Amino acid sequence: MTFLNQFAHEATEEVQADLFTALGIDWRLLILQIIAFLILVYVLGRFVYPWLMKSVDERQANIEAGAKAAAKAQEAAEENKEQVAALLDEARKQAAEILGTAKLESSEMLSASEKKAQTTAERIVANAHDQLGKDVENARKVLYNDTLELVALATEKVVTKKLDKRADSDLIADAVKSSSTKAAK
Amino acid sequence: MSELNITDLSADLRSAIEHLESNKNLDEVGIVVRIGDGVAWIHGLRNAGYNEVLNIETPSGVIEAFALNLLEDEIGAVLLGDASEVKAGQTVRLKGTVLEVPIGPELLGRVVNPLGKAIDGGPAIKTKQFGLVEREAIGVMGRKSVHEPLMTGVMSIDAMFPIGRGQRELIIGDRQTGKTALAIDTMINQAKQNTGVVNVYVAIGQKFSKIARLVERLKAEGVMDQTIIVATSPSDPASLLYLAPYAGTAMGEYFRDNSQHALMIYDDLTKHAVAYRQMSLLLRRPPGREAYPGDVFYLHSRLLERSAKLSDALGGGSLTALPIIETQAGDISAYIPTNVISITDGQIFLETDLFYQGIRPAISAGLSVSRVGGAAQTSAIKSVSSHLKLGLSQFRELASFSQFGSDLDEATKKQIDRGQRLTELLKQHQYLPAAVWEQVVSIGAVTNGFFDTVPAPKIKAAQSALQTKLWADHKKDMQELDKGAKPSDDMNALIKKVALSVAKGFEG
Amino acid sequence: MPGRISRRRIAEYVATELIEAKTSQAKVLQQLAAFLVDTRRTTELTLIVRDIEFQLSQKGYTNATVTSAFDLTAATQKAIEAFVKDKTKAAHISLTTHVDPSVIGGVKVSLPGYEINQTIAHQLTALKTRFKKA
After folding, report:
1. Touching check for C105 and chain A: CB below 8 Å?
2. pLDDT digit string, tens, across residues B414-473
3. Distance between CA C104 and CA A163 in Å, rounded?
4. Whole-angstrom Cα distance, residue B285 to residue A103?
5. CB distance C123–B22 less than 8 Å?
6. What pLDDT is recorded for position B271?
7. B15-25 burial, b if ≥16 CB within 10 A, otherwise e?
8. How far apart, in Å, are the Cα atoms of A3 and each of A6, A29, A40, B294?
9. What is the DSSP string of B247-309?
């Protein structure tokens, strides 16, 4: 820069009287600055700008992709919402059915238990009646058997006292006769 | 309820006296030579026949005996009553008949001893007919092949080992494995399904307390009205234990010969063989294997051969037999079990291991068989049970693999899961026999995979829910299904729909 | 050692010998007694005698025992003898009477292997036992 300044200074002294001088512009300095600017532009354009643009493009692409994905997700979310609603409906329906079945089963069990209890009670009453009947029948049997024995005993006593040899002979004769008659028949 | 009517009593007494006739015939008589252990040895009575009834005149009445040993010099007669009244020197007469028991519908609902005498405390039984205790079995031409099902209500049996009317199916297992329970459930099912089958339960040497509980249970289930119980306790003479199954069969044959169907349950024939062994040894018959007499096979074969399905010409009635045999330590190759297995048309084998694992009824699918099989199976159940046995047998083979915890492929896992579900499904509470439609929908739901998403422990709950729902919402269809015909495609679709919806509620 | 001879065979032999009378009665009975002692079967004597009586009755020699509560008259005895002859068709009948007051009345006729009991005691026992309700 010192060289440029020096050159610019020397040049300035020579052209003090022309247009640039009138405007206060140092045309040598301007040319050097233009050259410097062009060099800068070239360097920027060659090395910086492509990289920068590339970054910008990439970012742009990312943003666009993100926006697309977001849009897609939004659509999917909308769809899922509908599906979820449908599933929930189905689940509610099945829950209601299961509840209904459970209630039905429990009410059937209840009525079955009630019926069973009633049947048991009726059976107990019937058993009691049966038992009474059996007791009476047993008493009847015992009375009958005892009476039969008493009759036999009484007969034995009476006949032993009353039967004599003659009557016995007649009895034997009848018995022999009837046995022979039966055989003949 | 009968009343104590003195007038009737007096009339009865008069009638007894009037009918008292002395015997004017010259009767053949013998005398008791010696008596001991329920056997009376009698001298005389040269014309006595085998199994003929003899009347021993004691001071307290006539004690009956029947002649089993007809030797040259004496007769060995087994007493049918109290031996304490019989003494040497007492007169013995021939009754003139072989052993007979009262038979007929008057016996229904009663508990009797093998002589037909009521032991339930009720009025004396008066029947119009008597049947021979020992009777020849029907010949070949009088029979028809077994083709009608006898529904037991036990899913395992009706699906895998179906029993037909006229079949003999042995129930065999160790003590306390549920043999009597199976028989009782079968009886209850006859009442529940209104099959019209008459039950004859012969209790051979069973405790009277057990029989009393059985009677209570049958009354509670409404079965007693179509059941006859022939009961003998361990304290009864061996002669009564020996006669019990034959007497019961004579009672069952009445229904068979009158175009009805009867079910005989002999509980159990092991005790019967033991009683016969005791009698034979006391009669000095030569002992054979395990001290049983040589004709112990004939003892059971002639009994079980009387159970048959009659031809249409003879009325088409049937007598089905479910004999029960108790094994020791699961040994089905012992003498009496092998005898009876070779006589019967199949066996239901109950295993102690399965019982204690909680699988009740503890039926071994591998060892049990029904030789009549599908011929006697309801079409509806046949349509769903074809894969049941296969599934269970595959599961049995793979069950040992699952115990090792090794990595299994999907197909194997699926088979094991299916087998576990089937095992769980076939568990059944006592006294709850299943109707035909209940069995069809339950088995179909599992074998067709509708319950594949239901874990095994929840299968019973799912089954119950399915049955409740189907009965509540489709009662007419289920009643139609209960008739036993093969389900139509529409029916299958209905069952599938309901089963799948029920399964969702039990998904694990 | 020969097998055990049945009572029936022994009785048949003795009865035949007694009827044919080739050997004296005393000898036959002596042989029987010796046989029983030798074979240690003396306890069966009563039964063998019954069998002998039966065999004899089959061959026409019947011994009837008549039991009654009182002594029988001659006429009654004759009637009973006729009755036994009619029933058994035996050529020779011998009647043994026995008085037993416990029969109360009537008669019991016991033949080898047969009996007819028409005593009052028997009927009363039948009344007590046969018509009893179990």
Report:
1. yes
2. 888 888 999 999 999 999 999 999 999 999 999 998 999 999 999 999 999 999 999 988
3. 8
4. 68
5. yes
6. 97
7. ebeeeeebbee
8. 5, 11, 19, 144
9. HHHHHHHHHHHTT-EEEEEEETHHHHHHHHHHHHHHTTPPB-GGG-BTTHHHHHHHHHTT--B
**Partner residue opposite B73 with nearest CB, options C8, C114, C127:** C8
Q: Are the beta carbons of A169 and C131 separated by less than 8 Å?
A: no
What's the whole-model pTM score?
Answer: 0.82
Residue range A42-66, pLDDT digits in tens: 999 999 989 999 999 999 999 999 9
Q: What is the pLDDT of residue B141?
A: 96
Q: Using the beta-carbon criterion (under 8 Å), do C133 and A144 form an inter-chain contact?
A: yes
* Dihedral angle computed from the Cα positions of residues B26, B31, B36 and B37, in that order, rounded to the nearest 10 degrees: -20
Q: Which residues of C touch B27 (CB under 8 A)?
A: 114-116
The predicted model gives A133-149 an average pLDDT of 84
Q: Would the CB atoms of B505 and A129 count as touching at under 8 Å?
A: no
**pLDDT the model gives residue B1:** 45
Tell me which residue in B13, B26, B469 faces A147 most closely, judged by beta carbons.
B13
Cα separations (Å) of B57 from A146, B27, B95, B238, C115? 20, 13, 12, 21, 13
What long-range pairs does C16-21 form, CB within 8 A, spacing at least 24? Answer: C16/C55, C16/C59, C18/C52, C18/C56, C19/C56, C19/C59, C19/C61
Report how far apart, in Å, the C-alpha atoms of A52 and of each of A46, A48, A56, A58, B313 are: 11, 6, 6, 10, 111
Question: A101 to chain B nearest CA, in Å?
Answer: 6
Question: Best mutation site among C116, C120, C122, C124 for testing chain B: the one with the most B CBs within 10 Å?
Answer: C116
Task: Give the whole-angstrom CA distance, residue A61 versus residue A65.
Answer: 6
CA distance A151 to chain C (A): 9
Residue C130 phi, psi dihedral angles, 5° rounding: -70, -30
Q: Report the b/e string of B458-485 with b at 16+ CB within 10 A.
A: bbeebbbbbbbbbbeebeebbebbbebe
pLDDT digits (tens, 9 = 90+) for B139-165: 999 999 999 999 999 999 999 999 999
| B contacts of A139 (beta carbons < 8 Å) | 4
B-chain residue closest to A118, CA distance: B220
Q: How confident is the model at residue B480 (pLDDT cuts 50, 70, 90)?
A: very high
Amino acid of residue B228 = I
Chains that touch B (3 or more CB pairs under 8 A): A, C
Euclidean distance between CA atoms B428 and B189, whole angstroms = 13
Confidence of residue A11 (pLDDT cuts 50, 70, 90): low
pLDDT band at A185 (very low <50, low <70, confident <90, very high): very low
Choose among C76, C86, C120: nearest Cβ to A159: C120
Contact between chains at C72 and A172 (C-beta distance less than 8 A): yes
Pairwise pLDDT comparison (A99 vs B468), residue with the higher score:
B468
Contact B73, B41 (CB under 8 A): no
Say if residue B405's pLDDT is above 70. Answer: no
Which of left, alpha, beta for B450 (phi over 0: left; psi -120 to 50: alpha)? alpha
- Check B61 against C129: CB less than 8 A apart: yes
**List of chain A residues whose C-beta atoms are within 8 Å of the C-beta of residue B219:** 123, 127
